[in-house]
Amino acid sequence: MNATIISNDEKHYPVLLDEILSIISPQNGGTFIDCTFGQGGYSKAILNYPKTKVYALDRDNNTKKYTNDLLEKNKDRFFFYNSKFSDLDKINFNKEKIKTIIFDLGFSYNQVKDLKRGLSFFSDGPLDMRMGLNTFSALEVVNNLDQKDLVSIFKTFGEERDSKRIVKNIIIERKKEIIDTKKLVKIINFSKKKNNKKTHNSTKVFQALRIFVNKEISELIKALINSVKILEKNGILILVSFHSLEDKIIKTFFKLLSENKKISRYMPDNKGKTNILKLEKKKPILPSTKEIKINNPSRSAKLRYAIKINEAIDFEKEVYEKFNHLINIENLSDKL
Ligand SMILES: C[S@@+](CC[C@H](N)C(=O)[O-])C[C@H]1O[C@@H](n2cnc3c(N)ncnc32)[C@H](O)[C@@H]1O
Question: 135-213: same fold as 17-109+217-318?
Fold first, then answer.
């Protein structure tokens, strides 16, 4: 599980909030986009500063209930869209200059707790995993995709070593009955060569299915590209991620747009003069021990940010080429 958040029902702890506020300086005002509203921890903290404006997005319509208070108190300063962040380019930001775009990736604790979503391997809920605005569920994936495709998904998005054995058994078992959450956990348990003492046997397969069902990789890549286009010059792109695949994509994307190389092989050689992004820090920022103590799920969070120093010229093709192998695996869903 990953999530910004929470050790009990009442208190909400947005991950790395102090660090984010010190990077984005809301005290100077400006327009911000919170791409992963959730319970609104970041939006609320930014709106506490009077000269700010926040456009917030979340694909999960259940998060709308957390906007009521903010909408009431911040007329003309807060706007919410039930939208996927890959669609950032379709939202009307009223031609405003965007100072910062923030992402706090993954699921919230509320979503994991909701048994109907079937995100937890401890639940008897349906094998669903949809975050919102999806087209298919995990049940359809596990019960319909062929052996080779399931192995690619579990290997690439879950780094599950026993993928082949698990999938072989899924194929045998699904001929007898539909595979639901409980059954899947059972299959994984008897397929694993070794029982992992630290993490639950099902962690990796569940992570892979979640990523696949929500097209988390394509979402992230499209959102990174759109963010760079939308940000004003000197604007900040800031992301908190919770698993290594996401962090690797962000790191690679930042590197591609910030190193003194030609931006695109489709453009004439520009001798590295037109880097689009600048990194203040190469290493990610991690939560303090104090934060981890208060909010244990924050322990796997990594924050990276970059500053847009030049207008974005044709860079998309190169980005897509870099990540095509991952996007192609997510596109196996076209077979469903
Ligand atoms: C970790 S939570 C964010 C928590 C938030 N920072 C807070 O303080 O409450 C992630 C949120 O992002 C949303 N989300 C994940 N992927 C998304 C996407 N592709 N487009 C829009 N929202 C997304 C989820 O529905 C979830 O509510």
Answer: no
Return the ligand 1 atom nearest residue 17 CA: 8
Mean pLDDT rounded to a whole number for the chain: 92
Cβ–ligand 1 contact at 118 (below 6 Å) = no
Ligand 1 pocket check for 60: Cβ under 6 Å: yes
Tokens of 89: 């380019």
Own/partner long-range contacts of 198-205 (Cβ < 8 Å, ≥24 apart): 200/121, 202/121, 203/121, 204/154, 204/158, 204/159, 204/160, 205/154, 205/158, 205/160, 205/166
How confident is the model over 84-108, as a mean pLDDT? 96
Atom of ligand 1 nearest to the CA of 242: 1
List alpha helices for the chain, DSSP H. 17-24, 41-47, 68-73, 109-113, 138-144, 147-158, 163-174, 181-191, 203-213, 216-230, 244-258, 289-294, 316-330
236 lines ligand 1 (CB under 6 A): no
CATH placement of domain 17-109+217-318: 3.40.50.150
Verify whether ligand 1 is closer than 6 Å to residue 109 (CB atom): no
* Single-letter residue type at 178: I
38 Cβ below 6 A of ligand 1? yes
More confident residue, 115 or 34: 34
Q: Which fold has domain 135-213?
A: DNA polymerase; domain 1 (1.10.150)
Strands 78-82 and 52-58: parallel
Question: pTM of the prediction?
Answer: 0.94
CA 39 – ligand 1 centroid, Å: 9
pLDDT tens for 4-24 read 544 445 578 999 999 999 999
Is 114 near ligand 1, meaning CB less than 6 Å away?
no
Q: How far is the centre of ligand 1, averaged over its atoms, from the C-alpha of 136 (Å)?
A: 19
**Domain ranges (residues) in the chain:** 17-109+217-318, 135-213
CB of 36 within 6 A of ligand 1: the answer is yes
